[in-house]
Design a protein that fits this description.
197 residues, mainly alpha, 65% helix, globular
Length: 197
């Protein structure tokens, strides 16, 4: 497991499922990391209108690509959009320890208690606790934190865990048995649990 430290990189790199698929496709074709980076930039494979956005998003997408093995690559490229979303959510948790803790300590806790309301105070309490445990989080500006809270909600919405963008109502993800079995097989059941399984 990569030793991860708390980061607010989700600010510039929210869900990015389409972008992850581009990277996984190239990886599968045997391109090196360096070649993938260059190709994404030169051919604007992410289809961003703003080139600066590529530089902000690419490191996160590359990290997510690294945690996708062949089985997950096949599933994310060839299965339904719902399966892809679950795998993408897994890669975000796997590469962003703060977001994983948020899923584990807040979202899955709620789902396990059949409490489907994710309130603003739940998110605020989570960040206050993290700021008490980590100087790094404590040093983040209010603006950065507000953006990060929005990014977290955006990821929940795009993964299908929030009913709609405006609401704070959680919904259980359906996790395909192929994904479930594979994550258990590779020893990553804690991520399933964090998704509320």
């Amino acid at each position: 497991m990569m030793e991860l430290e708390y980061s607010s990189s989700l600010n510039g790199a929210s869900f990015l499922l389409f972008e992850l698929k581009q990277v996984v496709k190239l990886k599968r074709l045997g391109f090196s990391e360096e070649e993938i980076r260059n190709k994404v930039k030169e051919e604007n494979l992410f289809q961003f209108s703003n080139p600066n956005r590529i530089n902000r998003a690419l490191p996160s997408v590359m990290r997510r690509g690294e945690v996708i093995d062949e089985t997950l690559a096949d599933l994310i490229l060839e299965s339904s959009i719902d399966i892809s979303k679950v795998i993408n959510l897994y890669t975000i948790m796997k590469t962003d320890v703060l977001f994983y803790e948020f899923m584990n300590e807040v979202v899955s806790e709620k789902l396990h208690n059949n409490d489907f309301l994710l309130e603003k105070k739940d998110i605020n309490v989570f960040f206050v606790n993290k700021a008490e445990q980590s100087n790094k989080v404590a040093d983040w500006s209010e603006i950065n934190l507000e953006k990060l809270k929005r990014a977290y909600m955006q990821v929940l919405f795009e993964s299908g865990m929030l009913k709609n963008r405006r609401s704070n109502e959680l919904t259980r993800l359906f996790i395909d048995p192929q994904v479930k079995d594979h994550l258990i097989k590779i020893g990553d059941q804690s991520f399933l649990s964090a998704m509320g399984e």
